[in-house]
């Protein structure tokens, strides 16, 4: 392991995983943390899910959202991906001296709006201010707790051969939207972040009775990293078909131009579910009725061979191994 | 209100309160947040307390602790001040590119050690890395959940005339320790941070059966700000006696030299309790048996007049009004 922290240690890709596995897991050795799921499901009377994320997106305002909306949606989605109904959020701010109060108000209003849509309450918080030059405008950390229905067991380690893989929509919109805003790039059709709370979608999926095994929102590191996590945690292989993976025309164009790959692109309003084959088609139909999942697609399946690997049949008909993101594709997009 | 965020907006004093009252409370209008207690006590099957704090202390290592120990103790103490038994923590890091991994390991070990002492588990977390110059080494945000025993109702708004005020030890040690490390100041007897988890102390206080009304750890803004919060939230006056307030010789000397006032000094291992007069003496005896509260002292009482104000009888025998901290005494001490 390196002597110094690199940008890639925070990317959600390989180095980030190494950091967690090598530094934190050995120190905080408990059954909850070691599952490395998005939320910890706690025995606290009822089953309470509890999660946290920091947000350092730059710029803090971008097409389709801002750091406040992002923080709420990210934490709500992390709770929902454990099968929890999100209930309460904490909100902690690190502010650089000199931030316009108008910006702070605008961000706080976004937090409120996104919280109202997701039906969660911000119930506790903190504010720190650091001297100019010691932070970059505004950083937000949210934590959340939610309630998990009895009997629901969703985890990245539950994928089984034969399961189907469903993706809830196009890839890469959030990452390209933030990057184009930051770099002042313009595309013929503008790219907007997909930032959205997915808890209602997940509730509809749970209500459907489909036998869901894994559920995760592919944020930093993209779909490729999420599927690698599932394959590795579950000890299975995952096969996907490139032709089935939805990517918008403008994101595809931007990625080609910039040398990015949509499967590593960051999303903030998409989920990927691994579900028992029986009922997978019905689940897909149900998902497509939700406003945030109209373009849902069955993109692959879980297999017994190639354990721990993700293999993609390309549009050209070849097979290639899809690795976890190594290094950093786009820093500070969340 | 100012157009721009000032350092003092994060001080825990007047401007910080204004920011919360004017920006956040109107937006996140719910009964939990509006109490402005350290933790939100949630109805989630059992009674679950949930809190968060960000830590931006500079330097990250100081006499008596580091940012990791501070983050755990701060969140554990916030939970304990609601009368909760702290159970689980989240840990979210914002790291500046280039931080030595050895520093990160050292901080993570402190988190583990402090967590072990406080009997809490870190169960979820997040890591973000920002480019060099966009943060200052390492920022940590912890959130925590804990369980509140049935029937326990502790809040800053519960003080009643006749109650006694007990402080658990000397004031200002943490703030002076960090400041002297940062500025390279040396005193004849070195000052060490009082950073400590107080949950066992609180458990012993709860077990004593004393009728505790308010409980809070005077961190940023110091004892003066905490007592003003109690007076204001409860609609009472608070009288304290300067001669009864413990301050170590070295902190007193440093404060005189630097023009600080110990009552505004930051503490990370002290608490102040407002308790019914009957049983207050017994509570004081019980507190003094705990290693973190040996110098506990009865420092004053709650009165019906002077509503919303804190009045101190000085060592010279005069009376003065003790205001909430205005501006920033020492930035980035937590």
Care to describe what's here?
Two copies of one chain form a homodimer. Chain A is α+β, with helices and mostly antiparallel strands and 334 residues long. The first copy, chain A, has three domains: 1-29, no CATH class; 44-147, 60s Ribosomal Protein L30, Chain: A (2-Layer Sandwich); 164-321, Phosphoribosyl-aminoimidazole Synthetase, Chain A, domain 2. Helices cover 31% and strands 25% of the residues of chain A. Chain A is built from nine helices and 14 strands. Chain A has helices at residues 14-27, 31-34, 67-80, 101-118, 173-183, 199-207, 222-234, 249-258, 280-288; strands at 40-44, 46-55, 61-62, 65-66, 84-96, 121-130, 138-148, 164-167, 212-216, 237-241, 272-275, 297-303, 310-313, 319-321. In chain A, the strands form three sheets. A seven-stranded mixed beta sheet of chain A has the order 9-11-8-12-10-13-14. In chain A, α3 (67-80) packs parallel to α4 (101-118). The longest helix of chain A is centred in the N-terminal third of the chain and has 18 residues, at 101-118. Chain A starts with 13 loop residues before the first helix and ends in a 13-residue tail after the last strand. In chain A, 59% of the residues are buried. The model of chain A has no long low-confidence stretch (mean pLDDT 90).
């Amino acid at each position: 392991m390196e002597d110094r922290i690199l940008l890639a240690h925070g990317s959600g890709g390989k180095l980030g995983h190494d950091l967690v596995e090598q530094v934190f897991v050995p120190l905080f050795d408990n059954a909850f943390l070691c599952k490395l799921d998005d939320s910890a499901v706690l025995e606290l009377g009822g089953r309470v899910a509890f999660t946290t994320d920091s947000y350092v997106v730059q710029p803090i305002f971008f097409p389709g959202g801002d750091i406040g909306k992002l923080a709420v949606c990210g934490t709500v989605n992390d709770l929902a991906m454990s099968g929890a109904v999100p209930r309460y959020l904490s909100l902690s701010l690190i502010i650089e001296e000199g931030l316009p109060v108008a910006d702070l108000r605008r961000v706080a209003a976004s937090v409120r709006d996104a919280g109202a849509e997701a039906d969660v309450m911000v119930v506790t918080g903190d504010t720190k201010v650091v001297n100019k030059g010691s932070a970059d405008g505004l950083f937000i950390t949210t934590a959340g707790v939610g309630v998990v229905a009895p009997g629901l067991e969703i985890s990245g380690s539950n994928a089984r051969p034969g399961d189907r893989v469903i993706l809830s929509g196009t890839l890469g919109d959030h990452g390209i939207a933030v990057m184009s805003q930051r770099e002042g790039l313009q595309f013929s059709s503008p790219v907007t972040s997909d930032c959205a709370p997915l808890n209602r979608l997940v509730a509809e999926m749970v209500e459907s009775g489909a036998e869901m095994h894994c559920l995760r929102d592919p944020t930093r590191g993209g779909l490729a990293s999420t599927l690698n996590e599932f394959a590795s945690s579950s000890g299975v292989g995952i096969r996907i078909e490139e032709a089935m993976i939805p990517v918008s025309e403008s994101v595809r164009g931007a990625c080609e131009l910039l040398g990015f790959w949509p499967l590593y692109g960051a999303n903030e309003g998409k989920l990927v579910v691994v579900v028992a084959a029986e009922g997978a088609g019905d689940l897909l139909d149900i998902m497509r009725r939700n406003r945030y999942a109209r373009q849902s697609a069955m993109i692959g399946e879980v297999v017994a061979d190639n354990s721990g690997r993700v293999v993609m049949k390309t549009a050209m008909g070849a097979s290639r191994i899809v690795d976890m993101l190594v290094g950093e594709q786009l820093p500070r997009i969340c």
